[in-house]
Amino acid sequence: MANDKQQGGLMFNALTAGSKIVGNISADSDFRIDGTIEGELRCTGKVVIGEAGKIKGTVNCQNAEILGLMDGKITCNQQLSLRASGKIQGEVQTKILVVEPGAQFNGSCSMGANVAAATEKKV
C-alpha cells in the first residue's frame, strides 16, 4: 500500500452511503464522505462531502468540496468549494471561498490569509 501512495497519491479514505460514525476522526490523506459523521474530522488533505454525505460537528482540513450537508464549523487552510447541491449551516473559516449558484449558505464566514495562517497551526 505504501507503494501505491508513492506512485500516484491515490490513497484516500471514504465513508460510504448508509454508514455513520459518531466520534472524532483524524486522517492523513483525502477523505470522501457519502455517509454521516457526528463529531470532529481533522484531515491534512482534502475533504469531499458527497451529495448524500452529512457532517454535524467540526471539520479542519486543507481544502474542502461540499456537495452535501455541513452543519457546524468548517475551517479550511486553502479553498472551500460549495457546489450547487451543497448546504452549509454554521461557521466557515477559509482562505478562498467558491460558491456555485444554487448552493445554500446560512451562517458566518471569515476569509483571507490571516484566517488560513491561524488555522494551519491547529491542523
Describe the structure.
- The chain has 123 residues and is mostly beta strands.
- The chain has one domain.
- Helices cover 12% and strands 61% of the residues.
- It has helices at 2-8, 113-120, and strands at 12-15, 20-27, 30-33, 36-43, 46-49, 54-61, 63-66, 69-82, 87-99, 104-111.
- Strands 1, 2, 3, 4, 5, 6, 7, 8, 9 and 10 form a ten-stranded parallel beta sheet that branches.
- The longest helix has 8 residues, at 113-120.
- It is globular and about 30 Å long.
- The two termini are 25 Å apart.
Brief synopsis:
By secondary structure, the protein is mostly beta strands.
Task: Name a few traits of the molecule.
123 residues, 10-stranded parallel β-sheet
Topology at a glance:
Elements: H1 2-8, E1 12-15, E2 20-27, E3 30-33, E4 36-43, E5 46-49, E6 54-61, E7 63-66, E8 69-82, E9 87-99, E10 104-111, H2 113-120
Parallel strand pairs: 1-3, 2-4, 3-5, 4-6, 5-7, 6-8, 7-8, 8-9, 9-10
Terminal Cα span? 25 Å
Largest sheet: 10 strands, parallel
Number of helices: 2
Total domain modules? 1
Net shape: globular
